């Protein structure tokens, strides 16, 4: 009986992959895996943020600076936390010590996280819960307590003092919990219409009174200036009179000491113009026209001749 033999040589050679292809595939897979691992081994932390590294869910490092940071893939991960200054705003109501309602009291708090306590904040509170668990209760409570200590009118007049007191207490309350408060502001104060009208009327009255005081002070100052001017004028006249009296006294003393002083004064004060009337008191001559020489000549011709000798 004949047996049939089938050759498997060709089939085996045709079904096998070329030598070395399997090795290339393995190498390619290894390279691809290495690339994936490499890309997942680094995380970029942006400016204004801080990196927190978790290892199997546990904080391994909470102070990764901005830039490229390494972590072990599939074992560690890095999350970014915003450490820039942030603003928390809230609107609430409050009551003053005289039971006036402050409506729509708008408050704003500027704050940032203390980097040295960031890991503690994450463990005990959580970054996403900071506002609801820390800011909301502290800001509202402290603000209402401080406003409740002052009267409504004082709150309006001394708003900055109340604001500073609230700021100091909020800052002290949140600092131990890793929240650094940099500013606090009361953005709005709103009272009942009747109270606001009474405050406005009082302010207007105070302004009018101040205007009257200013006018009174202005008039008093004008009166003082007039008195000062009059006194200055009187002093000036007295000095002038004293000077004239002294001058007269000096002249009198000079005349008493020297009778010729009067003639000296005549010569000193003569302006160079000759007199228009000459002669004696009995027969003076007044020149109406011409010069003094003509008048003198005529007067001499008409004057009587007085003989002092004995006629021959």
Write the topology of this structure:
Blueprint: H1 9-15, H2 21-39, E1 42-45, E2 49-55, E3 58-64, E4 67-70, E5 76-82, E6 86-95, E7 101-113, H3 118-124, H4 130-147, H5 152-157, H6 159-174, E8 179-190, H7 193-257, H8 261-269, E9 277-279, E10 284-286, H9 292-302
Helix pairs in contact: 4-6
CATH superfamily of the largest domain: Band 7 domain
* Low-confidence sequence ranges: 6-14, 305-312
Helix/strand-derived category reads: alpha+beta
Count of distinct structural domains:
4
Helix content: 40-55%
Sequence of secondary-structure elements: HHEEEEEEEHHHHEHHEEH
Q: Output the strand order for the largest sheet.
A: 3-2-5
| Secondary structure tally: strands | 10
Mind telling me the CATH class of the largest domain?
Alpha Beta
General form:
elongated
Number of helices: 9
Describe the structure in your own words.
It is a single chain. The protein is built from nine helices and ten strands. It has 312 residues and is α+β, with helices and mostly antiparallel strands. It folds into four domains: 54 residues, no CATH class; 106 residues, Band 7 domain (Tetrahydropterin Synthase, Chain A, 2-Layer Sandwich), CATH 3.30.479; 62 residues; 40 residues, no CATH class. Strands 3-2-5 form a three-stranded antiparallel β-sheet, with no helix packed on it. A three-stranded antiparallel β-sheet has the order 6-7-8, covered by helices on one side. Strand 9 and strand 10 form a beta hairpin. Helix 4 packs antiparallel against helix 6. It is elongated. The C terminus is likely disordered.
């Amino acid at each position: 009986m004949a047996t049939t033999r089938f050759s498997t040589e060709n089939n085996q050679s045709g079904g096998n992959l070329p030598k070395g292809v399997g090795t290339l595939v393995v190498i390619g897979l290894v390279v691809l895996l290495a690339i994936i691992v490499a890309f997942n081994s680094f995380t970029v932390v942006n400016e204004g943020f801080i990196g927190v590294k978790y290892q199997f869910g546990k904080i391994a490092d909470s102070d990764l600076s901005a830039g490229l940071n390494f972590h072990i893939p599939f074992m560690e991960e890095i999350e970014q936390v915003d450490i820039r200054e942030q603003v928390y705003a809230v609107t609430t109501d409050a009551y003053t010590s005289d039971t006036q309602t402050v409506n729509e009291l708008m408050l704003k708090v500027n704050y940032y996280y203390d980097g040295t306590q960031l890991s503690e904040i994450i463990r005990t509170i959580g970054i996403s819960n900071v506002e609801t668990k820390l800011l909301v209760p502290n800001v509202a409570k402290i603000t209402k307590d401080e406003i409740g200590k002052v009267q409504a009118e004082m709150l309006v007049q001394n708003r900055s003092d109340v604001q500073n007191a609230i700021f100091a207490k909020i800052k002290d309350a949140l600092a131990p919990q890793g929240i650094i408060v940099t500013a606090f502001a009361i953005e709005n104060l709103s009272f009942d219409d009747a109270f606001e009208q009474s405050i406005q009327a009082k302010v207007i009255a105070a302004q009018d009174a101040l205007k009257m005081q200013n006018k009174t002070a202005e008039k008093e100052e004008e009166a003082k200036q007039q008195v000062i001017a009059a006194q200055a004028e009187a002093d000036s006249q007295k000095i002038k009179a004293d000077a004239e009296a002294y001058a007269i006294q000096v002249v009198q003393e000079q005349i008493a000491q020297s009778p010729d002083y009067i003639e000296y004064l005549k010569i000193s004060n003569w302006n160079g113009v000759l007199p228009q009337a000459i002669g004696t008191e009995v027969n003076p001559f007044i020149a109406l026209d011409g010069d003094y020489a003509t008048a003198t000549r005529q007067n001499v011709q008409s004057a009587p001749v007085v003989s002092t000798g004995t006629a021959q």
